[in-house]
Amino acid sequence: MTTVLAVIPARGGSKGVPGKNLAAVGGLPLVARAVRACTGSSLVTDVVVSTDDPAIAHAALAAGAALGASGRVHHVERPADIAGDTATSESAVLHAMDAYEAEHGTVDVVLLVQCTSPFLTHEDIDRVASAVAKEGADTAVTVAPFHAFVWRRSPEAGTSAPAEDGGRGVNHDKSHRPRRQDRPEDFLETGAAYAMDAHGFRVHGHRFFGRTALVETDPARVLEIDDPHDLARARALAPLLDPAAVPTHADVDAVVLDFDGTQTDDRVLVDSDGRELVAVHRGDGLGIAALRRAGLKLLILSTERNPVVAARARKLNLPVLHGVDRKDAALKRWCEENAVAPERVLYAGNDVNDLPCFGMVGWPVAVASAHDSVRAAARAVTTSPGGAGAIREIAAWLLGPTLSTPTLSTPTQ
Questions:
Q1: 374 with 287: CB under 8 angstroms?
Q2: How far apart are CA 144 and CA 328, in angstroms?
Q3: Phi, psi dihedrals of residue 256, rounded to the nearest 5°
Q4: Would you state the pLDDT for residue 365?
Q5: How far is it, in rounded angstroms, from Cα 174 to Cα 179?
Q6: ∠ CA(399), CA(123), CA(104), 5° rounding?
């Protein structure tokens, strides 16, 4: 069997975007997205995440566990001397190969996969790996068709030179502007994935040697995150480019629900005595009852101190933690006390105080009426707004539209 090792370098330090490799896009940390692409490949046999940051290691291993691929995902501690700004990706790959081979045996093909390309797919990984493992290339790289005219300032002009001292064409003669179809076909290196024959990589010490195969990818997915603007663009594009995926019962052991704006429409009615009333949705109650009978652990978690939260929890026969200042700390304790792995938790919320919990769980879910920043950080978004059946919709994801499981009797509200 051909051993294809995917190495994901993910150091903790980043000047352009602090904590970049843990930044969430589409509800998943960038390192988890890279792990997901690699484990989804039919050719990759093992994945090694090389990092100097324990939080990144934890996120990577948790992603592997959540995907049912924990035995294939490994962590290698990256030494400080190859974890700085000047360290090359090649040095991280060679170190990871040494660590892997010392324990598991020889690698035939090694891949370099970058966290900073959030829209890399497992099909891209398959094709770049296949170019070396099956098709005889020495190295391979993901590229995208590129049709732009490239310019460069003349060295003597400098960056502040007046327009007349401007620049020169790099891939064209500026006096001749042929149509796109009349120009040679160019490709842009995406920076997402590289494959190398492992022995050749050790001999040459860099990612391009021998015959290099160009593996074309979708230009719409080409985005490298180097600064906060890139991250914002990635989060805006995720709902359009990510596959529409919602969790099933097999993905989740527990469901944790925010209250205001998630189980309600976020409005409060106040009477002349100052008493507050909220509106809830009966369909949500039906869905929660079905989730409880299906054996899922459930919790209502809210910062709201109004006793209406506890009253609703009693009505639904659910445990509740409300009036908490730190929802993420309360959620962490609850998971520990109930022996629930955070990566197996679905957390449904609607506003910015839910974001710390989103960063902890495997399935952060936003209701349709959630704040834009919450929708951007969610892994899935309901079509129903808060207080209008969003929880019933989540229950249907997990149990099916009839809210039934093999052991579930006819639900009652």
A1: no
A2: 41
A3: -115, 130
A4: 96
A5: 13
A6: 95
CA-based Rg of the chain, rounded to a whole angstrom?
25
Pair type for strands 73-77 and 24-25:
unpaired
pTM: 0.76
The answer to whether 139 and 197 have CB atoms below 8 angstroms apart is yes
What is the C-alpha to C-alpha distance for residues 55 and 30, in angstroms, rounded to an integer?
12
C-alpha to C-alpha distance for 44 and 65, rounded to whole angstroms: 16
Residue with tokens 């993420």: 328
Mean of per-residue pLDDT scores for the chain: 90
CA dihedral 281, 333, 381, 277 (to 10 degrees): 30
Is there a contact between 379 and 363 (Cβ–Cβ < 8 Å)? yes
The residue type of 402 is: T
Residues forming beta bridges with residue 111, ordered by sequence position = 6, 195
* Residue 154 CA to its chain's centroid (Å): 41
First to last CA, the chain: 55
Return d(Cα 181, Cα 179) in angstroms, integer: 5
Distance of CA 387 to the CA centre of its chain: 28
User: What is the structure's pLDDT at 231?
Assistant: 93
What average pLDDT does this structure show over 189-213? 96
Residue type, 258: D
CA 395, 398, 404: angle at the middle one, nearest 5?
A: 75
In the prediction, which pLDDT does 408 show? 40
CA atoms within 13 A on the CB side of 377: 25
